[in-house]
Write a structure and sequence with these properties.
heterodimer; A: alpha/beta; five-stranded parallel beta sheet; 5 strands; B: about 210 residues; 2 domains; about 35% helix; elongated
Chain lengths: ~200, ~210
């Protein structure tokens, strides 16, 4: 064997050993700041309370509500089907299990939207997908869905349609739906929609 | 016998090219342009720090010149900015905030001990950019509570906002369980359902607190 070959081989092995000492790419950079900023300036993460109400009423199987308020607040009141992941515990394994469920639309709710939005930024940085924020939060939920205000007579027809929907939703959430027994955290049942071979809807 | 071995110089050339390539490769490894300085756990803590926020009543001192270490940045779009803004603010829309130019300027301001207060339409609007800045390590960046909309409503008597809570977010404004159980659709009397809010207000200070 030629000495030169041995030399080159030794050099390669030493260099490849150096790979072991490369700084480990830290986990906290899953979404880089520029991409995160780009996501932040998009208003698409906000869902209106009406939209959320509609999804709950339709029992949308792809909807996953996460209440980021404290557990005592959650036990007092929450939206039907919501699970509780307090803001402080967003880095726990329990939160990870819930947030990493794929193919569902996760909607974060809090008293207003600010805490949910903060949770959104952190979850987004951690790389979770399909996460939304309910705009206005529960305060807005009360004033729009539970206690809707009748629009002025001069309002456009769409306002009245919306009001009609809200009246129905209000009845649904206050009357038809018996409040869940509080205390235990709900177990998560992800029901997947059946695959349709035919195109749904009229068009 | 390999053709190589006829000429020992070739081995040396090959070796040196090999080394040069590796050296170039190693030296061109560079970290990302922007890196998070805070871990997610630290970010969660940061949200509850009060030093990160500017309260509307503190604007009185900032605009009155009592505090002169604060730069105001309006992150709304040009159109909204041209229709009205807080005096002295400059307009950098959210998407431009991470430009090379703005980042190096921020670094300079941080070194000089200057504070940067950013605001949008509401607290929510500027929340994301503020969180990014904070996570990038700019702990001199503060967020105006209430945002421009609240300022515009109170601009003539900013000091009075000390006794007001309209800008404070994150707390329940209703007793949800009670309202949801009793309100129904025909209950127009929502005045009684409101629960008195318990607000813990921090002491009024004349100077903007914090490290800068």
């Amino acid at each position: 064997m030629n000495r030169n070959y041995l030399l080159l081989t030794a050099l390669l092995i030493i260099l490849s050993g150096g790979l072991l000492f490369l700084p480990e790419k830290s986990d906290i950079n899953r979404e880089n700041p520029e991409d995160l900023m780009w996501d932040i300036v998009q208003p698409t993460r906000y869902l209106s309370t009406d939209k959320v109400a509609k999804m709950i009423i339709e029992k949308d199987p792809l909807l996953l509500l996460i209440d980021v308020r404290e557990d005592y607040e959650f036990e007092e009141f929450t939206l039907p089907g919501a699970v509780n992941v307090p803001f402080d515990s967003i880095l726990t394994d329990y939160a990870d299990e819930i947030l990493s469920i794929e193919d569902v639309n996760t909607v974060l709710i809090s008293n207003d939207d600010i805490r949910a939005d903060q949770a959104w930024v952190i979850a987004k940085r951690l790389g979770y997908k399909n996460i939304y924020v309910m705009k206005g939060g529960l305060n807005c939920w009360i004033t729009t869905i539970i206690q809707p205000v009748e629009p002025a007579e001069t309002s456009p027809i769409t306002e009245f349609e919306l009001y009609k929907f809200r009246l129905g939703a209000s009845a649904y959430f206050t009357g038809a739906e018996i409040p869940e027994e509080s205390g235990e955290k709900k177990k998560l049942n992800v029901t997947r929609r059946k695959k349709e071979t035919v195109v749904e809807g009229g068009c | 016998m390999h053709i190589h071995e006829l000429n020992p110089k070739k081995t040396i050339i090959a070796l040196s090219v090999f080394i040069v390539v590796i050296v170039i490769g190693l030296s061109s490894i560079s970290g990302p342009r922007l890196e998070y300085k805070l871990s997610p756990a630290e970010t969660i803590e940061l949200i509850t720090w009060e030093e990160g926020y500017v309260y509307p009543y503190e604007l009185e001192d900032i605009l009155g010149g009592v505090v002169d270490t604060v730069i105001l940045i309006d992150i709304r779009n040009n159109f909204d900015f041209s229709r009205g803004h807080i005096p002295g603010a400059e307009n950098i829309s959210a998407i431009e905030l991470l430009n090379e130019e703005n980042i190096s300027r921020l670094k300079k301001l941080k070194k000089e001990g200057m504070c940067v207060m950013i605001y949008g339409d509401s607290q929510l609007h500027a929340n994301g950019p503020w969180m990014i800045y904070r996570q990038l390590g700019f702990n001199n960046v503060k967020l105006l509570l209430g945002g421009y909309d609240y300022y515009a409503q109170w601009k003539d008597n900013l000091a009075d906002t000390y006794a007001e809570d309209g800008y404070l977010l994150g707390m329940p404004r209703h007793d949800y369980a009670d309202v949801a159980a009793n309100a129904g659709i025909f209950d127009e009397d929502d005045g009684d359902n409101k629960k008195p809010l318990n607000i813990t207000r921090r002491k009024k200070t004349t100077v903007v607190e914090g490290g800068c």
